[in-house]
């Protein structure tokens, strides 16, 4: 996976860390297909545990959930909770570090978490 790819597999990760700059508006995608088998996603809800994050563009497509995130400078926890057609629930977490445009670096080892 390329370090700028904002898609991840729900089977491989319960929590993923990402960085973006304060002016970025980026989509994040979670692929639930391998985890769900023949079950399907009925609802997907994205929430932020801290204020300062704007969540928009929430969507479900073929057991893949997506949301667009924009945030102030800081570190945030964003949760995607799904409910399946069979009534099962699960969630995945994105830890999002948002940096000032002048402080951003693309090196993954600089992630502050």
Could you name the key traits of this structure?
single chain, 113 residues, mainly beta, Immunoglobulin-like, 4-stranded mixed beta sheet, 1 helix, elongated, disordered C terminus
CATH evolutionary superfamily: Immunoglobulins
Number-wise, the strands total 8
Largest sheet: 4 strands, mixed
In the CATH hierarchy, the architecture is Sandwich
Q: Decide which structural class fits the backbone.
A: mainly beta
CATH topology heading: Immunoglobulin-like
Helix content: under 10%
Describe this structure in words.
The chain has a 4-stranded mixed β-sheet with strand order 1-3-6-5, with no helix packed on it. The protein has a 4-stranded mixed β-sheet with strand order 2-8-7-4, with no helix packed on it. Strand 7 and strand 8 (about 90-100) form a beta hairpin. The chain has one helix at about 35, and strands at about 5-10, 15-20, 25-30, 40-50, 55-60, 65-70, 75-85, 90-100. Helix content is about 5%, strand content about 55%. It is built from 1 helix and 8 strands. It starts with 6 loop residues before the first strand and ends in a 14-residue tail after the last strand. The model is unreliable at about 105-113 (pLDDT under 50). The protein has about 110 residues and is mainly beta. It is elongated, with a radius of gyration of 14 Å.
């Amino acid at each position: 996976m390329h370090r700028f790819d904002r898609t991840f597999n729900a089977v491989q990760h319960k929590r993923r860390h990402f960085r973006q700059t304060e002016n970025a508006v980026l989509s994040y995608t979670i692929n639930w297909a391998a985890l769900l088998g023949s079950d399907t996603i009925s609802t997907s809800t994205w929430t932020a545990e801290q204020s300062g994050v704007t969540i928009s563009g929430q969507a479900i497509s073929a057991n893949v959930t997506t949301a667009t995130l924009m945030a102030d400078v800081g570190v945030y926890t964003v949760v995607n909770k799904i409910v399946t057609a069979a009534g099962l629930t699960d969630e995945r977490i994105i830890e999002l570090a948002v940096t000032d445009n002048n402080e951003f670096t693309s090196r993954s080892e600089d992630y502050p978490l």
